[in-house]
């Protein structure tokens, strides 16, 4: 199973569960997380969702091994888009449209989509030992998950530009200072603190929570969809070519 779920009261915890691959997103995990979010959205007993990772990582981002294998298989047809492109678009829609409070607990390293997914968090907590990184310029790929809209919105233009362009690591304290996460916790206290806040929200009337989130998100829905479409187009043009092809080949050699 690439996803583990557990319920406590009106709070559901969804844990990415590919620890042997640092919870990297392959096609199955993309599909399973999208389905888990849709199920939580439809469950009247669930008011709040906590998203975290198992093992020592939150998520290492896209599974480069799967992408490389797909690019090799599809070279003859010049098809450059990964097999899970449709499922990934559905996952971004599920995140953007998720109607209930979504709390993220970053338990370990978050790279690529493991960082940009935080743009969809209503509240994010982070282990003091975790680190984040957008490696896009170092692997010759454009960003994804509407991050070219959401990160400037969250961090301000210059912080977002540096995070997306530099490929440098961001510490937990830096992430808190620039507004990417709300609180930094000890590793042992991360989930306890995230669940404590989830319980506080779950005590509120469910229809008030969903109304509040709908009103908060309403001004941004069209911009998120437009940014994701632009990023998908850039991905289709760049994946498997030039610097990205070199980066994937280097990864496979390692």
TrEMBL record:
It is found in: Peroxisome. GO terms for molecular function: delta(3)-delta(2)-enoyl-CoA isomerase activity. It comes from the Bacteria. Its main location: other. Signal peptide: none annotated. InterPro entries: ClpP/crotonase-like_dom_sf, ECH/Chromodomain_protein, Enoyl-CoA_hydra/iso. Keywords: Isomerase, Peroxisome. This is Crotonase.
């Amino acid at each position: 199973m690439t996803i583990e779920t557990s319920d406590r009261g009106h709070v559901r915890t969804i844990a990415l569960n590919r620890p042997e691959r640092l919870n990297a997103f392959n096609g199955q995990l993309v599909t399973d997380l999208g389905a888990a979010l849709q199920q939580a959205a439809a469950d009247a007993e669930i008011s709040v969702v906590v998203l975290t990772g198992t093992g020592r990582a939150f998520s290492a981002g896209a599974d480069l091994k799967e992408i490389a294998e797909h690019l090799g298989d599809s070279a003859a047809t010049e098809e450059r888009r990964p097999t899970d492109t449709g499922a990934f678009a559905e996952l971004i829609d599920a995140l953007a449209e998720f109607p209930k409070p979504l709390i993220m607990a970053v338990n370990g390293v978050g790279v690529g989509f493991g960082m940009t997914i935080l743009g969809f968090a209503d509240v994010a907590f982070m282990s003091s030992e975790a680190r984040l990184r957008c490696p896009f310029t170092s692997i010759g790929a454009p960003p994804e998950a509407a991050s070219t809209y959401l990160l400037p919105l969250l961090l301000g233009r210059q912080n977002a530009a540096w995070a997306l362009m530099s490929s440098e690591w961001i510490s937990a304290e830096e992430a808190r200072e620039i507004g990417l996460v709300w609180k930094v916790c000890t590793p042992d206290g991360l989930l306890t603190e995230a669940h404590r806040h989830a319980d506080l929200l779950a005590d509120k009337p469910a229809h008030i929570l969903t109304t509040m989130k709908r009103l908060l998100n309403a001004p941004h829905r069209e911009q998120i969809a437009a940014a994701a479409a632009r990023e998908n187009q850039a991905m289709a043009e760049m994946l498997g070519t030039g610097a990205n092809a070199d980066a994937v080949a280097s990864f496979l050699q390692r």
